[in-house]
Amino acid sequence: MTFVSLLGRLNATNYVGIGVFMGLQGYYAPNSVDEVISLLLEAANESQLAKLLAGGTDVLVQMHSGLNKPDVLVNLKKIKETNRLEINDREIYIGAAIPSAQMQEYQNLKTLLPGLLEAADLIGSTQVQGRATICGNLCNASPAGDSIPALIAAGAVCDIANKDGGRQLQVEDFVVGVGQNALEPGEFLLGVSVPTPSSTKKDAYLRFIPRTEMDIAVAGAGVAIAFEDNKCVEARIAIGAVAPTARLVERAGEALVGHEISDETIENAVAACREAASPISDKRGTAAYRKKVVGVLIKRAIKIAESRVREAA
Ligand SMILES: Cc1cc2nc3c(=O)[nH]c(=O)nc-3n(C[C@H](O)[C@H](O)[C@H](O)COP(=O)(O)OP(=O)(O)OC[C@H]3O[C@@H](n4cnc5c(N)ncnc54)[C@H](O)[C@@H]3O)c2cc1C
Question: Using 50, 70 and 90 to split pLDDT, how confident is the model at 257?
């Protein structure tokens, strides 16, 4: 069975084929947050591995290759809260079931968070984006997950559901290791909330891959900056694919805040990012190469975010 046919089956009502093929003991598509929590707690009590299913573009591939063998799969697509995409003056809320393709249909989202939207638009192909969610990308916790540095730069907060009424966690604290997130048993990610940026704040995301598309980032750079009277008043800078987790580089932001953007301030931010990077060497590039590339991307992303602010003024 190919990945494409698996995705096709998810749109059908009969999931028996997947269950048999994957060795699942249970597949559920609940309608409420409480039901999801109960299913997760029940599985934990019975020492079963439960996995959430959003778009399935990671989890099904991992099951297919034997990397992941859940006993129970819980689909999040039928829950009202996970399908919420709301934009108001205070926050932008993106529910856990919203695929990248749906995000791209909101022109005001593109205007407010162009960097996050370009990160989501880099995930896989058009077909993959029809299912892939940024929350799935975040929960999968790959060091190279494209949406993660962009979410960190945008100041996104994880809205976590649990039996005690939920909790909030900054995205930079959510991914705790390669493939590991901060969710406890019985918890899942309901969505992410981003403070609505003012018109003088813009973001940008860039990644480098050895091919032209459909590859894993060698390095990624997420930047969000705000200006007042030509001076940078806020800057969040995050790096991806150059450490076990995407990282917020506070010193890079500090290098910009209080100054006009100049070659010197950008170089200071770049130096901070290179210092914060602790990449591996693999077939996509050596550690030294990744450090070099992440600096180049940060420099370009700062300039793009800055030009977006100027264009919006
Ligand atoms: C061909 C192809 C190309 C790809 N290209 C890229 C790329 O360029 N960049 C990139 O970053 N990724 C890429 N990916 C990986 C994948 O598409 C993304 O990570 C995607 O965003 C995952 O989202 P999903 O909704 O499909 O997650 P799923 O596969 O549904 O879930 C991913 C993981 O997160 C867990 N999970 C999902 N939602 C929740 C939740 N709400 N709460 C708790 N846990 C949850 C699942 O149990 C699973 O472990 C690619 C994948 C494919 C197949």
Answer: very high
Does residue 140's CB lie within 6 angstroms of at least one atom of ligand 1?
yes
Burial of 125 (0-12, 13-18, 19+ CB in 10 A): exposed
Q: Is the pTM of this model over 0.85?
A: yes
CA of 142 to the centre of ligand 1 (A): 9
Q: What is the band of 20 on the pLDDT scale with cuts at 50, 70, 90?
A: low
Name which CATH class applies to 81-195.
alpha beta
- 50 pocket-lining for ligand 1 (C-beta < 6 Å): no
Q: So where are the chain's domains?
A: 3-75, 81-195, 201-312
Which atom from ligand 1 is nearest to the alpha carbon of 52? 47
Average pLDDT over residues 242-257: 98
Judge if the beta carbon of residue 7 lies within 6 A of ligand 1.
no
Q: Is 123 in the pocket of ligand 1 (CB under 6 A)?
A: yes
DSSP tag of 307: H
Report the C-alpha gap between 33 and 182 in whole angstroms. 19
d(CA 267, CA 274): 10
The torsion of the CA quartet 102, 103, 107, 113, rounded to 10 degrees, works out to 180
| The pLDDT value given to residue 247 | 98
Which of 1.10.530.10, 3.30.390.50, 3.40.50.720, 3.20.20.80 is the CATH number of 201-312? 3.30.390.50
- CB burial readout 173-211, b (16+ within 10 A) else e: ebbeeebebbbeebbbbbbbbbeebbebbbbbbbbbbee
Confidence of residue 17 (pLDDT cuts 50, 70, 90): low
